[in-house]
């Protein structure tokens, strides 16, 4: 297997203003399942198409936004290796004991120059529901709601994205799949640790640690249409879409969870190989890059974050 | 239905009509679509519509309303007591008068993600 080191975004911990309403939304509308609730009240959710214990953690708080994103690495030894590399780079590393989140092994954590907390972990229990592995049906339990297949990626807003880019490439072995360069400098970066068009992305923003969106992958464009019907039927706050990105080519809708955290559901996107060149966008065509059909940014895209 | 339909006056602009179970911001968006809010001092700010992003801050200068939970990153308890709130999180209980307020984060904003807040460890 050629894919080693950082494998994928494993889970993200979101702050929500109302826990029962949020669990209801992420399970019934996005289509996730609740695995368990922790003693401190955090809720742990997953898609039935994911093996690992959970991919979405909800924490009740007075402010919306994101606490952390955690990436899964292939093996235990990777944690020690990445800890050395992060420390050598000049960023302090802390340790989170196994079991701090149910089903998740020990984690290392650090704050990147955009102000976001990143964690790495190697071990996760599996939990039900999960895909069959012997003579497998295409699903183990019937998909419901928007039928999200996985937590796919997140887009964060914060300062110092040149430094963020340098860190992800030099220390975590990510590759830069796409970038937007404006006359006043680098505006946005899309980074991959595997073969997706992105596993995490950043947009330059003065305030650190902000969340633009967490994204769930759907099976196809038809599923994106189904999600749009659900968004209207249940009066979920819409941002934009269904539309398409020039960047990554994903077919997409943006909308907001009950706390105002932006969600995306999307399908498609190209396959990225590590020898592919970086795709670049400039001021003249950035509108198509962000929203390929509208060909311009909407009012909220650069300003509304939690 | 008429009994629960209230005018919402926007300072310097015009009036929308809101309904008891409807977020004031949604009423304002509809009114803007019908051209009932001319000459807004600033463009109607619409963000997440769920109390998280803080862009739709308004000061209610008259009338009664009820409110959903909203992010304390943008409206403090004191702000809220003084009528400064988010249009997306309030529902009219009477005719309302309000003024659009530019979005600003509350002063003394602390780091969201300090470790003790993350639970356990």
From TrEMBL, chain A:
Keywords: Aromatic hydrocarbons catabolism, Dioxygenase, Iron, Metal-binding, Oxidoreductase, Repeat. Pfam families: Diox-like_N (PF22247), Glyoxalase (PF00903). It catalyses: catechol + O2 = (2Z,4E)-2-hydroxy-6-oxohexa-2,4-dienoate + H(+). Its EC number is 1.13.11.2. Its cofactor is Fe(2+). One of its GO terms (molecular function) is catechol 2,3-dioxygenase activity. Residues 8-123, 150-268 form the VOC domain. Homotetramer. Belongs to the extradiol ring-cleavage dioxygenase family. This is Metapyrocatechase.
From TrEMBL, chain B:
Transmembrane segments: none annotated. Gene3D superfamilies: 3.10.20.30. Coiled coil: none annotated. Residues 4-104 form the 2Fe-2S ferredoxin-type domain. InterPro entries: 2Fe-2S_ferredoxin-like_sf, 2Fe-2S_ferredoxin-type, 2Fe2S_fd_BS, Beta-grasp_dom_sf. This is Ferredoxin. It comes from Xanthobacter agilis.
């Amino acid at each position: 297997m050629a894919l080693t080191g950082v494998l994928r975004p494993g889970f993200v911990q979101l702050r929500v203003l109302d826990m029962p309403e949020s669990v209801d939304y992420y399970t019934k509308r996005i289509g996730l399942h609740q695995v368990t609730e922790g003693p401190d009240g955090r809720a742990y959710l997953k898609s039935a198409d994911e093996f690992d214990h959970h991919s979405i953690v909800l924490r009740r708080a007075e402010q919306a936004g994101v606490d952390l994103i955690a990436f899964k690495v292939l093996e235990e030894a990777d944690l020690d290796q990445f800890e050395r590399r992060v420390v050598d780079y000049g960023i302090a590393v802390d340790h989170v004991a196994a079991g701090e989140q149910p089903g998740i092994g020990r984690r290392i954590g650090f704050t990147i120059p955009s102000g976001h907390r990143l964690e790495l972990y190697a071990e996760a229990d599996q939990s039900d529901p999960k895909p069959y592995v012997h003579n497998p049906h295409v699903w183990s339990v019937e998909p419901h709601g928007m039928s999200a297949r996985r937590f796919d990626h997140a887009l964060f807003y914060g300062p110092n994205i040149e430094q963020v880019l340098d860190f992800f490439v030099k220390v975590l072995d990510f590759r830069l799949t796409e970038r937007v360069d404006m006359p006043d400098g680098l505006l946005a970066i899309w980074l991959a640790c595997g073969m997706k068009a992105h596993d995490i992305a950043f947009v330059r923003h003065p305030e650190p640690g902000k969340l633009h969106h967490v994204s769930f992958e759907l099976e196809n464009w038809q599923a994106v249409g189904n999600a749009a019907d659900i968004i209207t039927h249940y009066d979920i706050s819409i941002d934009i879409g269904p539309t398409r990105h020039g960047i990554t080519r994903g077919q997409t809708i943006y909308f907001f969870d009950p706390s105002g955290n932006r969600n995306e559901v999307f399908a498609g996107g190209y396959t990225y190989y590590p020898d592919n060149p970086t795709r670049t966008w400039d001021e003249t065509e950035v509108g198509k890059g962000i929203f390929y059909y509208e060909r311009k940014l909407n009012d909220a895209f650069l300003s509304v974050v939690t | 239905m008429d009994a629960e339909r209230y005018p919402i006056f926007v300072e310097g602009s015009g009036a929308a009509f809101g309904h008891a179970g409807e977020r004031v911001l949604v009423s304002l968006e509809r009114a803007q679509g019908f051209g009932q809010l001319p000459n807004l001092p600033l463009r109607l700010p619409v963000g997440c519509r769920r109390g998280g992003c803080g862009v739709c801050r308004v000061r209610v200068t008259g009338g009664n309303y009820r409110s959903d939970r909203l992010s304390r990153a943008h409206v403090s308890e004191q702000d809220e007591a003084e009528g400064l709130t988010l249009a997306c999180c309030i529902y009219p209980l009477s005719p309302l008068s309000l003024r659009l307020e530019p979005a600003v984060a509350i002063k003394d904003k602390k780091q969201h993600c300090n470790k003790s807040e993350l639970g356990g460890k």
